[in-house]
UniProtKB/TrEMBL annotation:
GO terms for molecular function: intramolecular phosphotransferase activity; metal ion binding. Residues 374-447 form the Alpha-D-phosphohexomutase C-terminal domain. This is Phosphomannomutase/phosphoglucomutase. InterPro entries: A-D-PHexomutase_a/b/a-I (IPR005844), A-D-PHexomutase_a/b/a-I/II/III (IPR016055), A-D-PHexomutase_a/b/a-II (IPR005845), A-D-PHexomutase_a/b/a-III (IPR005846), A-D-PHexomutase_C (IPR005843), A-D-PHexomutase_C_sf (IPR036900), Alpha-D-phosphohexomutase_SF (IPR005841). One of its GO terms (biological process) is carbohydrate metabolic process. Residues 6-133, 156-255, 263-369 form the Alpha-D-phosphohexomutase alpha/beta/alpha domain. Belongs to the phosphohexose mutase family.
Amino acid sequence: MPDLSQIVKAYDVRGVVPDQWDETLAELFGAAFVRVTQASAIVVGHDMRPSSPGLAAAFGRGAARLGADVTEIGLCSTDQLYFASGSLDLPGAMFTASHNPAQYNGIKMCRAGAAPVGQDTGLADIRDLVTEWAENGPPPASATEGTVTRRDVLADYATHLRELVDLTATRPLKVVVDAGNGMGGHTVPTVFEGLPLELDALYFELDGTFPNHEANPLDPANIVDLQRRVRETGADIGLAFDGDADRCFVVDERGEPVSPSAITALVAARELAKHGGGTVIHNCITSWSVPEVVKEAGGTAVRTRVGHSFIKQEMATTGAIFGGEHSAHYYFRDFWNADTGMLAALHVLAALGGQQGPLSGLVAEYDRYAGSGEINSTVADQAASMAAVEAAYASRQGLELDHLDGLTVTGPDWWFNLRPSNTEPLLRLNVEARDEETMGRVRDEVLTVVRA
């Protein structure tokens, strides 16, 4: 029997194919998805991994068997699937393992309007049904099986994004894009078509074996080729997308990475200007610059836990216009509160092309502090190490401690957040300070206790 506890995560399904799951299970997931969402129609898409078409088709068969009409949109990015779910008002399923290695695959599911499906919003119920049916046999078919039809939404997706950000009047820009053999190679040419952008395409061939580098731009090793190409060609900007192209990372004209917090602040300022104010969500490890810029732009900043389910929940609760995370996930009210790296990229391109200076100068006003980046430490006992760090700072004067997500300690000119990984024996540390020297001192202080 398959151990679904190993592949059904907090927000999605993710595992090795065929060792941990296969098309037989995918068909049961399709049936369970329809049963839990009570959907009469759904939309299904998939990325370029070798196992994706078969898994997506099996999911569709399971859904149709229980009476739901299935719209297959074929190859797509995750945010393209969210677009389909939002614009067609249908529950959706995206087959992708994002930036994981080639042998992995997974399912990201949402309700109509791209509302997320996680452990507390249906995923646990789906897991339980699949477990039951895997043991006792599939549920009986509906009296009337659903239809399966194909539909291409790529052009509509591109049109929607270009309507949200106007680039027609910007100066011409030379843009290097590294798609990492992922779905950015599918979406970027259509989205950029007709815009004043000279596109230099790196690794646009769709290849789920990732022959050039992992499709995970969060790892600095995977943006080296992009940085080199930007420097060699004198490009204005470089963009890197992850495997399913829902995250976008930016490098400036010098090939230097731009902090996702700086991108969050820049896009927040533009969205606030567009909407005449509003609420912006940021998680507890984004830079101090984000709430500062939001306040300066006349908006209200709301701080949340790390993770897209918390961001999306807070956006729905507050009616926020935008949300950003350190991991380069960017969420827009104009995009059904879903995350889309492509829309964030268009905002950055519009801001850069709307003035004459280089990107490094443009983002400098949004990148105000010295940050450590996320530092992982393997520990034997997460709780004991967390307690030791808290004890080391609890008695000091002038510090503020909170437990919104792990432990955050804030001093007059620095802060750090330490939080446990949900899936590995790791503690994740982020430190920020007003200068590099202070940041380094606080970072080393905390790591000494963590790694004792």
